[in-house]
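A favour, since you know our structure tokens better than I do. Would you make up a two-line entry for one protein for me to read? Write everything out right here, beneath this request.
=====
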Amino acid sequence: MRQRFTEVTAELIDANPHLAVLTADLTAKAFDEVRARHPDRVINVGIREQLLISVAGGLALAGVRPIAHSFAPFLVERPFEQIKLDLNHQGAGAVLVSAGGSYDIANGGRSHQSPGDVALLSTLPDWTIDVPGHTDEAEAQLRKAVTTDNLVYLRLSNRENKRAYAGAGDGFTPLRTGRRGVVLAVGPLADNVLAATEGLDVTVLYANRIRPFAGKALRACAAELEDPAIVLVEPYLAGTSASEVTTALRGLRHRMLSLGVAREELRHYGSTRQHDIAHGLDAAGLRRNVVAFLNE
């Protein structure tokens, strides 16, 4: 996804004189060629992520559409105060594009892990949060994001599904229908969810945009079930969208299971697959939890 991001961004910079891309050293070299053509709109601020966001806010106030890019812990967690003040408070729009969220760079240690980025950003209003599950989805979401003046967070991943299941992201896409429950699969975990629910009588909905939350679509599915059982599967902190589900189903009797990255830190960093297994997000772990929940 990151390679496609750099290619498409370079194309967009060439085509749009009101677009700029900012880096904090990470991926900066990939923009060398386009920087040579547009040195005033391809800016590397060095390892200064707080400045990265502040400059993005300033450019937005000057009429430029900024794209700011870094790893998720450096793009969201480290400069969160600047996001709150220099973007939200100033009414300045920007496109923040992260990579390596959760444990995509597991062996990089805790400093390179950010399972709480979506939860943290969700504390602020007006953010569109895209979690693409395929490179084609990420490209469509990036192209759409630069056409607006909104606040957009595009969360790229090192992993992806075998194919794109949705476009730029409007609502939830049904991947399977059933009567015993609804499993909402977010972004790159869709293939694991489909494998985990093979043969189970459940509806699987796919989301590559989690904010705004498509609550009406979820409610419509849940309302058709005799005993609505909702399983939320997110590739970041477990329960990040639980309150959105509760709000969407207000007044409708239901029960919910939230699956995702656990709060406990795993200090034997290992590989991404090992983290999947440890957090129960591999197909076997997901199936075990979904079946147990349906049978409660």
Notes: The chain has twelve helices and twelve strands. The mean pLDDT is 96. The CA atoms of residues 59 and 89 lie 15 Å apart. The first strand starts at residue 19 and ends at 23.
